Amino acid sequence: MLTLNKSEIEQQVLNFISKNEKEEEDSSDDLREIELFCKCMLGYVDLESIEKYECSLLNKLYQKYQVNNLAELIHQIKWNYKQDFKTLIRIIDHFPIPKEVEEQLRYTDDRIDQAFVHKKSHSNVLLSHPIRVGHTLFYRNFDQSDEFIIDHSSDHLEGIVLFEVIRQAGLASTHHCGIAMDGVSVILESDIQYQNYIELNVPYYTQCIPAIRSNGGIGFSVFRVIQNDMVCAKGFFRALVYKDRVAYEKQRLKLAESDFKKTMQN
Fold first, then answer.
1. Cβ neighbours for 266, distance < 8 A, ≥ 6 positions apart
2. For 221-245, how does the pLDDT look when each residue is reduced to its tens digit (9 = 90+)?
3. Which residues pair with 183 in a beta bridge?
4. Rounded to whole angstroms, how far apart are CA atoms 54 and 82?
5. pTM exceeding 0.70
6. Sequence-distant (≥ 6) Cβ neighbours of residue 28 within 8 angstroms
7. Any alpha helices (H) in the chain, and if so which ranges?
8. How far apart (Å, rounded) are the C-alpha atoms in residues 80 and 83?
9. DSSP state, 199?
10. pLDDT > 70 fraction of the chain, expressed in percent and rounded
């Protein structure tokens, strides 16, 4: 079982909360940022250690949700599946990959089962099995896939491969949130900020925070791609997730019938 040195990020958490207290911002957006920050710090820090510090912002959230401690607060804070990606993308940088997680992933060559990323061939899988920290999933990524034939020499990972890495991480994360292996994800929107080159043959990782309901519906994944302690890319995917193939095919049939009726009317 992986044990984290939770004190490493504790000071960052306190600095974030203190900064927001000093700014004395009281808008709904600022309060939501603190709420999601609390939700995402689960697994990174010792909650009792954070509770020892007197934080007026936390007390305000305790009153809002009518709870007495951080564990109860985190349990009560629910995802807004249509909106929270906008806030989460602003705070994900406060949650670095723990050194213990990176060390364990660095030396693995064990790729996740192809069913998690909807591939027929295991050689096209670009992810390791993940390590979960609270609501966050960390994957080791790989460079090579038989799906891609690059017709020019390059000293860095090609963007098309990086997109597939991120897409696979988001897809696999839906299944780790309870979606059946025959579930279907339809991408509605994506945004990727490319920040640094990814060097070939050097370990790199995807950090993914998914907000997906086990019975499907609108959801999202916010991600960062990290190599040598640098953020190489970050962004989000929004998707319409079907809990299984049957649910997807029913909706496809409805859409086909609707299109047919429109055609007959014209």
1. none
2. 999 999 999 999 999 999 999 999 9
3. none
4. 33
5. yes
6. none
7. 7-23, 28-40, 47-51, 56-65, 70-76, 84-91, 99-106, 159-176, 245-265
8. 6
9. B
10. 88
- pLDDT (tens digit per residue) in 172-206: 999 999 999 999 999 999 999 999 999 988 999 99
Cα 138 versus chain centre, distance: 9
Measuring CA to CA, how many Å separate 264 from each of 91, 162, 250, 258, 259? 50, 43, 21, 10, 9
Is residue 202 exposed (0-12), middle (13-18) or buried (19+ Cβ within 10 Å)?
exposed
Residue of 159, 31, 166 whose CA lies nearest to 87: 31
CA 63, 66, 71, 76 dihedral sign is: negative
Task: Write out the two tokens for 8.
Answer: 């490493």
Residue 149 has pLDDT above 70, yes or no: no
Query: Phi-psi category of 149—alpha, beta or left, where left has phi over 0 and alpha has psi -120 to 50?
Result: beta
**Mean per-residue pLDDT, 69-75:** 91
Q: Which amino acid is at 205?
A: Y
Contact 38, 20 (CB under 8 A): no
**Encoded tokens for 167:** 């897409």
Per-residue DSSP letter, 156: B
24 has a pLDDT exceeding 80: no
